[in-house]
Amino acid sequence: MKKQILGLAVVLFMGSAVCMAQDNRGGRPDMSKRIEQMVTDLGLNETQAKEFKAVMEEMRPNRNASGERPSREEMEKKRNEADAKLKKILTDEQYKKYQSMRPQRGQRRGK
User: Fold this and answer.
1) Which of 28, 73, 88, 97 gives 20 to 30 Å between its CA and that of 11?
2) What is the largest CA-CA distance in the chain?
3) Per the record, which residues fall in region Disordered (predicted)?
4) What angle do helix axes 92-110 and 31-42 make, rounded to 10 degrees?
5) Closest among 28, 22, 51, 26 to 105, alpha carbons compared
6) Cα–Cα distance for residue pair 41/48, rounded to 1 Å
7) Is residue 8 part of a domain?
8) Could you tell me if residue 92 is inside a domain?
């Protein structure tokens, strides 16, 4: 009887651990946390931070009416528009730092 209870407890513990691990979505922080980290890393003031967040939210992919993700061309167009807006918001130094941060994010996605 004690072995059955112990076995059941172990199974429940393992099941709950698996459920908690799945909630993390592959270890990727959510978009708002990544944006906040970028604001901190770039050293933006309040006005810049507000405008930066707005541009980054606009760039976030939206699903169309049928539930499909936008095409690569649409995303590239959004990215180019966002880059133009960010260039106006950020100082030259901040923009260079932002550009240097981008390849690092892309390399992680590919792996």
Assistant:
1) 28
2) 71
3) 57-111
4) 140
5) 28
6) 13
7) no
8) yes
- The total of structural domains in the chain comes to 1
Residue 81: inside a domain, yes or no?
Answer: yes
Q: Which domain holds residue 64?
A: 29-99
Q: Which residues contact 53 (CB under 8 A, 6 or more apart)?
A: 35, 39
Task: Report how far residue 46's alpha carbon sits from residue 40's, in angstroms, rounded to the nearest whole number.
Answer: 11
In a domain, 10, yes or no: no
Instruction: Give the Cα-Cα-Cα angle 79, 95, 72 (nearest 5 degrees).
Output: 15
φ/ψ of 25, rounded to 5, equals: 55, 50
Q: CB–CB of 35/101 below 8 Å?
A: no
Task: Enter the pTM of the model.
Answer: 0.60
Q: What is the mean pLDDT of residues 77-83?
A: 89
E strand or H helix at 2: helix 2-22
